[in-house]
Amino acid sequence: RALGLFSLIDSLWPPVVPVKVPGQSQDSEMTTTNLPPPSFCYILTVHSGERHVEVDEEEQISNLYQPPAVCGLKEILQIDGCNERCSFWAQVLYLRLQTKHSVLINQRDILLFVTDSTLQNVVHTTPKVVAVSVAASCVLSTEITEALGVASRLVFFKDALWGNGRIICVERTVLSLQKPLLCLAAGADLSELTGPVRLDELDSTTQANSICAVKGTVVGVNESTAFSWPTCDRCGNGKLELCPQDRGLLYCNRCVGVVVSPVTRMQLEVFLSCPSRPQSAVKVKGLLGVIIQLTLGCHQCQGSYEVQSVLGKEVGLLNCYVHSVTSHPNCVGLEEIVLL
User: Fold this and answer.
1) pLDDT, tens only, 284-306
2) Cα diameter, the chain
3) Which end of the chain is more exposed for a tag (fewer CB within 10 A), N or C?
4) Of 1-15, 94-108, 234-248, where does the model show the most confidence?
5) How far lies 52's CA from each of 60, 88, 193, in Å?
6) Which residues contact 228 (CB under 8 A, 6 or more apart)?
């Protein structure tokens, strides 16, 4: 019983034309308002010997077909009900694979964090960003995966499911960069974002597996997890080797050359005191250099620091992924990220 298929059935019920009931006379006019929706459905396929299916382009679309009605994300968040069909345009800001390391990448669920003008142009009544869960059964085209691997893109989500506070892409959901021909966009705000994207700031309502902006004061450093490593100053490769000819130099396999001036990168985990969440210990893992530069106050750090020089530094606003939110102890675990 696939949720996507039954969501479509429910959206077309009750039918426009009378339903023929096997074993009953069809002469009398039947009412269909009190009939329950079907508990099963047929999946149409071609015969095993057929190579392809020919489509008659001139044939009119049946009046039983309901084209997807495009909504803004704000409108979708206000829908009451479960497994409701929804279609929308959204700007994809961040992509994260769900952590199942034993499963192939193309078989993992994906979290897409998206927004649109209906969320960005309002005050605090609605979230600025929404998470869209893309199930492994939803096949993404090569065009989509390549586009999202490069930069933030405006993507059309056709026939996703909304329910229990979540948007889910299942086997019959289609993601595309182009608007489909049969589409109803009455009243939907489809304008593109013009200004900088704003994230929701960390507060008492922030939940795990979301993204947020955070600012605060450094009150502690986890020295046991701090480490540094050299990277190539040309391509950023962090897996340098010792040069075979001169053990005192580093060699980059990606650039196929000696790295004369390696750039030192650090991982630094800091604890912040945040006015927006005063009762929580906020732990931020910095891998991307933003925290390093803000806390150490330098761009050319050499992999060492004095803890006392870090304490009391102001950090923010940082874009972060929320790993965990716990109440005992009251702690929030964040990871610094870069938006697409």
Assistant:
1) 987 555 555 555 554 444 445 56
2) 95
3) N
4) 234-248
5) 21, 31, 41
6) 264, 265, 266, 267, 303, 304
User: Which residue is it, tokens 């085209």?
Assistant: 141
Q: pLDDT-derived band of residue 319, with 50, 70 and 90 as boundaries?
A: very high
Query: To which residue do tokens 């426009």 refer?
Result: 16
For the domain made up of 73-183, give the CATH fold.
Answer: OB fold (Dihydrolipoamide Acetyltransferase, E2P) (2.40.50)
Q: Nearest to residue 132, comparing CAs of 210, 26, 229?
A: 210
pLDDT above 90 coverage of the chain, percent: 24
Q: How far apart are CA 251 and CA 222, in angstroms?
A: 31
DSSP secondary structure string for all residues of 250-315? EEETTTTEEESSPEEEEEEEEEEE-TTSTTSEEEEEE-SSHHHHHHH--SS--S---HHHHTT-EE
**What is the distance between the alpha carbons of residues 266 and 287, in angstroms, rounded to a whole number?**
6
Residues 6+ apart with CB under 8 A from 157: 86, 87, 88, 89, 90, 132, 167, 169, 173, 174, 175
Domain borders along the chain are 73-183, 210-296+309-336
262 closest CA partner among 293, 291, 237? 237
User: pLDDT at position 301, please?
Assistant: 45
Average pLDDT of the residues of the chain:
79
CB 98 within 8 A of CB 81: no
**C-alpha separations of 16 from 7, 8, 43, 186 in Å:** 17, 15, 21, 22
**The listed CATH number (2.60.40.350, 2.40.50.140, 3.40.850.10, 3.40.630.180) that belongs to domain 210-296+309-336:** 2.40.50.140
Residue tagged 């933003």 (tokens): 290
Q: Same CATH topology for 73-183 and 210-296+309-336?
A: yes
Cis preceding-peptide flag for 317 (omega within 30 of 0): yes
